[in-house]
Amino acid sequence: MSVLYRKHHVLIIKNANGLDHAAYSFHQNSRNKLLAFDATVTDLITGKVVKKFKLKDLGERSLISDISLYQDDREKFFDARNFPIPCKIEIIAEHSSLDNFFINSWDPQEYWNQKVVKAEVVASYPPSVGLRFREMNFEKGPAKEVSEGSIQLKWVFEQMEPKAPNPGEDYPWVQFAPARFSLDGISSDMRTWEGFGKFYAQLIAGKDELPKQFKAEVHKMVEGATDDYEKVSRLYSYLQKNFRYLVIFLGIDGWEPRKAEDVLETKYGECKGLSTLMKGMLREVGINAQYALVFADDKKKRPLAPDFPVHSFNHAFLRVPIGDDVIWLECTNDFLPAGFSGNFTSDRDVFVITEDGGFLDRTPKYAEAKFHQVRNNYSLELQPNGDANFSGSNTYGGFPAIPFWALERYADENTKKSYLNSQAAGSGAIIANFTLQNIASREVPSTTIDYSGIVQRFAQQTAKRVILPTHWKKMDADFLGEGNLNWEESLEITLLPNLSLESGIGEFKHQDNLFDYNLSSQLVENKLIVKSSLFVHSPEPLGKEDKAILVNKINDQFKKTIILKKSEMP
């Protein structure tokens, strides 16, 4: 069931920025081939043709990624730079795909700041194969023509005004997907998620079978485990310590996992192979793990429509039901605890494959407080020059702990100390000694850091006064995740005998639409006790700009000070 694409694109370019709109690239491999390409560039001032391009004139480069050992993809590209302005660029291209597993979507207005005089797409297909489509932001459906052995659908747009960059605004586009499809001899039906799942069930069938000798090793790994989660955790830890994440893309390998025994032999795998091996180990100890597909990304999410099955995935991992609970195993991660995958796959739609089909599910949002905790406790002893000796204990839970788990996994002692100086302690810290301990409490990564050293210029000084901060460390955007945080801090500052309170002691509360902040301070004998709490509660994930604004607001609250008066030392 092959697909043939023909493209005819005419662009009038009036400034240099518009040359990007004429850029053309094609990913070519054993399944997809660029058959023809013609481009003509005309100078609109002189009316003369500047240059013509054929298929042989296109640039070409390999698409081996940083994580791939080998893949057979190459990119053909048309470089549309350095043409006279204004100009007309006309492109005619034709390419084919051996299968209809993927069918390109259509966006009538591909770029911001682009006026469309006319855009149309025509889709022709035999009724026996079928074609499904989903329209977004269209006022009416396509024109339809039926002839013997063929159905034709046609969409036309005219006079579309330029659109300014606005990711929140909805624009028209059409998504296409097959009704029936075939891939390397495996045929299935994509009209329902269950039917689509049957295709993947065939791809992964038997791939998780383990060699007999290794089965015995798996049982030894879980000896003495008190519950199923502990079994999962032990096997997951084994996977993390003994296998590398490495990708080989060849033909159908983009969708079909390698056999578990091959992953065992080579000690590496990509998401599909590592997930298949983990699935086999769990099955061996009586735990049913389900192969699952997702669009994984730290920032982007792709919702799945229950009534429109389509391949929209770039990653495989495991869904593991344990009693009434479900945990998700990110088998490419080599340092986080079992059941916690961070924001790479959190809070998004997932396609779960079963033996006889599949179903849609959703990964956890990790909104609970335990996934967003920071606790800082500092004891400081003020020195006459404004420096301070300090000891501190910081505890991080969930997302704030991730950098420290990575630090423990990858960094040497000097790198750890440098990172703690800049990220854990406050400004001016020079750490002399530290201990860092990572603990997994069920699915929650937790880190405790104990350390000591000196703080340079902790206090500001004038001739008659000493000014102390109510917070040693500023708020960091990395701690906010997507907009949630439960943060507490305490400072116990031992003062010099010649200092007495002038101002700044008391209670303070501040409420914002995204955070609540509380501060209390008191003087007990010669110790200044400062305690504060911050609760950040964004209902929706924050973008980079909104997060920066929020961080500035929080740090404005952190700027409060306590002023002490100096008296003559006896």
TrEMBL record:
Superkingdom, natural source: Bacteria
Pfam families referenced in this protein's UniProt entry, alphabetically: DUF3857, Transglut_core
Limits of the Transglutaminase-like domain: 219-328
InterPro entries for the chain: DUF3857 (IPR024618), Papain-like_cys_pep_sf (IPR038765), Transglutaminase-like (IPR002931)
Domain DUF3857: 5-162
Protein name: Transglutaminase-like domain-containing protein
